[in-house]
Amino acid sequence: MFLLTRFSLLAGTGRFLPWFSSFCLFAALLVAPFCLSLNASELPKSDSAPILEAAESVFQNMAGGDYSALWKGLSARTQRAIAGSVFKALAKEGNPATEKTINEELAKGGQIAREYWGGYLSRFDPKTVLEESRWSVGEVVKDRAIILLRYRKSENDAKLLLFFERGGWKVGLHESFHTRE
């Protein structure tokens, strides 16, 4: 089980009195040790719980090979990017598959999805995120959220971006980790 941290500080906007900011910092430092020891099942349901659950389910589905459920948990931009890269790769091989067919295969967890995610998982183990990383909710603004992931051997956080789309929080793998080609 991975540890989740739930704590955020009021961002100083200059509108609050200095003593209020100091009080908030003191209160956060007082409460932080208790929050750090909570895991996902012990957290109270709050606004950040659906965000954490959406992200966790993507990595669980990835680890469990449920590619249809995984696809549903991804942002629209990530889905378009994956389908586009698969289309280009198949076109180079002379495969006449259409983007529509590729999208359908990825959505239902078909052969194309198994091959794509098999290659992806040959380079990435989702258990490192699920079992060996600390999660904390970063900035949440309307329809965008950031989860900070810190692998146990790392000194830096990775930022996982989520977007509120199609009635729920969706993980932006492409938006979070894609580098320009």
How would you briefly describe this protein structure?
The protein is an alpha+beta fold and 181 residues long. The protein has helices at residues 18-36, 49-64, 67-72, 76-92, 99-108, 111-121, 127-131, 173-177, and strands at 4-5, 133-141, 144-151, 158-165, 168-172.
Furnish the topology, listing elements before pairings.
Layout: E1 4-5, H1 18-36, H2 49-64, H3 67-72, H4 76-92, H5 99-108, H6 111-121, H7 127-131, E2 133-141, E3 144-151, E4 158-165, E5 168-172, H8 173-177
Helix pairs in contact: 4-5, 5-6
What does this structure look like?
By secondary structure, the chain is α+β, with helices and mostly antiparallel strands. It has a domain at 66-121. The protein has helices at 18-36, 49-64, 67-72, 76-92, 99-108, 111-121, 127-131, 173-177; strands at residues 4-5, 133-141, 144-151, 158-165, 168-172. A five-stranded mixed sheet has the order 1-2-3-4-5. The radius of gyration is 19 Å and the shape is globular. The model is unreliable at 1-45 (pLDDT under 50).
Q: Give the overall average pLDDT.
A: 79
Distance between the termini: 35 Å
Oligomer: single chain
Number of helices: 8
Computed structural class: alpha+beta
Order of helices and strands: EHHHHHHHEEEEH
Rg result: 19 Å
Main sheet overview = 5 strands, mixed
Lateral arrangement of strands in the main beta sheet: 1-2-3-4-5
DSSP, total strands = 5
Choose one word for the global shape. Answer: globular
Ranges with pLDDT <50 over ≥5 residues? 1-45
Helix content: 40-55%
| Range of strand content | 15-25%
